[in-house]
Amino acid sequence: MVKKNIITTQVIEDVVNRASNDRIPISDLVDAMESVGFGLAIMIFAFGIIIPLPPPFPSIISIPLVIFSTQMMMGYAAPKLPKRFAKLSVKRSVLAMLVQRSSPYIRKVERILRPRLAFMTTILAERIIGFFILIFASFILMPMPLSNFIPGVGILVISFGLLGKDGLITILGILIGLTGVTISVSTIFIGVEAWHYIKNLF
């Protein structure tokens, strides 16, 4: 029996293959993901955050995550893009590269995902998960030290959990994101304290 993939980027590949222009509207991308809920949309944008990019690209990419996480908190069944963002677009080549680079990692993740801790897949749990994603995406949006990578990884792991209905992986992603937020806040606090200490010396 052929194993059915838990995570699929086929809907994204279809959008890329159907595109006749060099740029693809983000609205087309989000509309294509509607049938698979928030997991795939969050995964794609999270990959965009953890791939090394110069500022302000990580902050820009985090904006849809802020929108989607807010929609999760409000009880939306699938991501919806506000009209003001409907005309934004991404290069077809960039999207194709993102899918190509993410595919090997996705195949590895599929081997460990399985439905478990079903209480993390309820409507209430999804709203709480949206709250945590909103926190992590907000930290990425702000220009804070070490604020991008670890919260981004946390969001990515959460998206895997959502796609695989794997509550354990979702909880792991939340813990990773909280670790990143804690490190960022601690770094700022230590920096401020060090500045005051040096200032008092002189």
Offer a concise description of the structure:
The protein is an all-alpha fold and 202 residues long. Helix content is 67%, strand content 3%. It has one domain (10-201).
Could you explain how this protein is built, in words?
The protein has 202 residues and is mostly helical. It has one domain (10-201). It has helices at residues 10-18, 26-32, 38-50, 57-73, 92-110, 123-141, 149-164, 167-201; strands at 23-25, 89-91. It has a two-stranded antiparallel sheet with strand order 1-2. The longest helix has 35 residues, at 167-201. The termini are far apart. The model has no long low-confidence stretch (mean pLDDT 79).
Q: Helical element count?
A: 8
Given as residue ranges, the uncertain stretches (5+ residues, pLDDT < 50) are: none
What radius of gyration results from the CA coordinates? 18 Å
Shape, principal axes of CA atoms: globular
Strand tally is 2
Measured by DSSP, the beta-strand proportion falls in under 5%
Secondary-structure-derived class = mainly alpha
- Give the helix proportion (percent range): 55-70%
> What would the average pLDDT be, to the nearest integer?
79
User: Biggest sheet, in brief?
Assistant: 2 strands, antiparallel
Reading the helices and strands in chain order gives HEHHHEHHHH
Distance between the termini: 74 Å
* Widest beta sheet: strand line-up: 1-2
Q: What's the structural domain tally?
A: 1
